[in-house]
Queue: 3 jobs
Job 1
Amino acid sequence: MTEYAATTSTLPAGKVRGTGVGILLFVVTFGIYGLYWYYVTHDEMKRQTGNGIGGGIALLIAFFVGFASPFLSSAEVGALYERGGRPKPVSALTGLWVVPGALLLVLPIVWFVKTNGALNEYWKAHGAV
């Protein structure tokens, strides 16, 4: 993934979350961490840009229509890059990694690595440590 210079923003950057720790927490909590992850990441993206569905709506979607969440999350992360005039490292199509992955555990992990990694790179470029 290519690093890029951050745009000037007075809004706080989101938190960088370890991908490996996220996967471990998702497994140990039997998916409950996934609901938390959807909430906080969408909340941070909405606070940073003023765009997106926000944490509450993301949590409701994840809880009631969970299959849509990977598509929405990847699309919003990609939109963060696009609004900054940069190429999107992930898009809604990245969510397709999860579809056959319901049967194969490794494919949702690929989705999470790609999406969380892109989000972490975005936050780092905007001042998060």
Note: DSSP finds five helices and no strands in the chain.
Job 2
Amino acid sequence: LATLGLLLRFSETAAAAEQQVLRAVESNFGPELTIAIDGLLSRLQEGSLIAIGVSVIGLLITAAALFRHLRISFRALWKQAPPLVSGSMRSAVRETVLEQVKAFAMVLTAGALLIVTLGFIAVVHWLSGLFSALPRFSDTAGWLLALPIPLILATLTFGLLFKFLPPVPLAWRHVWLAALLCGIAWIVGADLLALYASFGDNSAYGAIGGLFVVMLWMKFVSQVLFYGAELCKVVATAPS
């Protein structure tokens, strides 16, 4: 919403689109709803800068807290004490600050990876439209182009987590197998979740069932992440 207000404030294209939407609303629903939507959009424009600042800071803090707790969990997996109990006060403060800096770095890396993902999706859509003009590739081009991209991105994401979350340095040869297996599990689980969403019930009982499915999905992702981390530990500590 804050980004929408910012676009309406500084983009002439967005302002022109806003006027078209308001005219369409007025012609279909009357002037009362148009006035209400116009007032809401005006308030969005006025508070867009503050809202974006608050949103970005809030997302950075919460996401950094998530990565920090993940690093604490990985410390427990490697049988290492948390920073606050692993040494003197000076080293504990230094390790705590370092953990926070690493968490912020991981958040920024995740944002950059998300931008790369959106770029890949745009390229895939462009190539799908290009190959769909050829009769021979019209049915399978989109599927063949779209299949490797999620697997590569999921594997890369798990690989980065397995390499930088543990408290000990790991080489890429220690994490690639676990990252690949976790990437495959992520793709299969995401497809099953999408399949449930396609054929799920839309009633109130279906909504409650959907909530339980989302909770099950979160449990599944957590188990995949920690089993992959355990596999990395086994590979790294195995005698060569």
Note: The chain has a mean pLDDT of 78.
Job 3
Amino acid sequence: MGETGAGGAAAIGRTAPRRVLIAEDDPISRRLLGATLVRWGYEVVAVEDGLAAWNILRTAESPRLVVLDWMMPEMDGPSVCHAVRAASGSPYTYLVLLTAKGTKEDVSVGLEAGADDYLVKPFEPQELRGRLRVGERVLDLESSLNRRVAELQAALAHVKQLQGLLPICMHCHKVRT
């Protein structure tokens, strides 16, 4: 069903390489794209159709960076995008459509389906690399934001606990004796 590979160099500031899911029905394109991503230091999970991608994306351990072909058997790329966004779970999944469909209408349909980015085949490898780095920054920001929200929730719970211990006047906000 799928192929996996481990990259050499980890992304800056990370102990393990970022995992990327590739969904591409053409075996040669899938292997070339996978080899390129491994060379860039990514760990790759590759599948041959959209349904296989969707099944992986529904798991807790799924990669958060995803490169999808548009035209695949079982489930096309935009359908996978719709399904991921409808699931609206956390953490966020960054979706890139990589396809031969290149009209402005196609781009619009792909982005409206929930893709974060869109590249037309044949693509420039350095452009894909740059766009994946943008995806990494978005995912890192989302993780950082989630950590901050958790810290604020913990601090608020602590304040509420302290307020329960101290008799504070609701009107003047002074400690009552």
Note: Residues 57 and 63 are 7 Å apart (CA to CA).
